[in-house]
Amino acid sequence: MTLTTGDHIPSLEAAQDNGRPYVPTPGRWRVLFFFPKTVTSHCQLQARQYQALLADFQALNVDVIGINSDPRQEQLAFRSVCQLDYPLLNDGQQRISTQFGLLDEPWPGEQVRRPRRETFLVDPSGTVRRHWTQVDAGQDALNVLEGARELLGGESRQSLG
């Protein structure tokens, strides 16, 4: 069963792509965006959009975390190509994707199941406050930023331009 708004997330026990364990910062909101594969243009676009808006998320006390099940070496290459400054969690054993209910059937020609592209906005207590399905890789970061601003009382998309 997929986690959704109002659900409490499980603890995220995973290593980051840098090999260090992930430890959430107490008192901060989190964006958890799941993406299926590091070598696809859609996943790179999504990650780059989060990087471009990272300062806006941080100004709202919101951390951005990408979650993927590709091997660590592929995540490191992805970080370098996309020039990312936020954590990528390595879900190689797919525990997190399974706990969130996001594993899809294997892609054609592959044996491994991959997580669906879905995004969660989680409050400091670990409760899902917003959940995006049918995510558009090019709009996800902006949509989530707007959702965070609505919940946290910040400026809206209309006041950005």
From TrEMBL:
Residues 3-153 form the Thioredoxin domain. It catalyses: a hydroperoxide + [thioredoxin]-dithiol = an alcohol + [thioredoxin]-disulfide + H2O. GO terms for biological process: cell redox homeostasis; cellular response to oxidative stress. The active site is at C43 (cysteine sulfenic acid (-soh) intermediate). One of its GO terms (cellular component) is cytoplasm. Residues 1-20 are annotated as: Disordered. Gene3D superfamilies: Glutaredoxin. InterPro entries: AhpC/TSA (IPR000866), Peroxiredoxin_AhpC-typ (IPR024706), Peroxiredoxin_BCP/PrxQ (IPR050924), Thioredoxin-like_sf (IPR036249), Thioredoxin_domain (IPR013766). It is an enzyme of class 1 (oxidoreductase). Its EC number is 1.11.1.24. One of its GO terms (molecular function) is thioredoxin peroxidase activity. Keywords: Antioxidant, Disulfide bond, Oxidoreductase, Peroxidase, Redox-active center. Belongs to the peroxiredoxin family. BCP/PrxQ subfamily. Thiol-specific peroxidase that catalyzes the reduction of hydrogen peroxide and organic hydroperoxides to water and alcohols, respectively. Plays a role in cell protection against oxidative stress by detoxifying peroxides and as sensor of hydrogen peroxide-mediated signaling events. Monomer. This is thioredoxin-dependent peroxiredoxin.
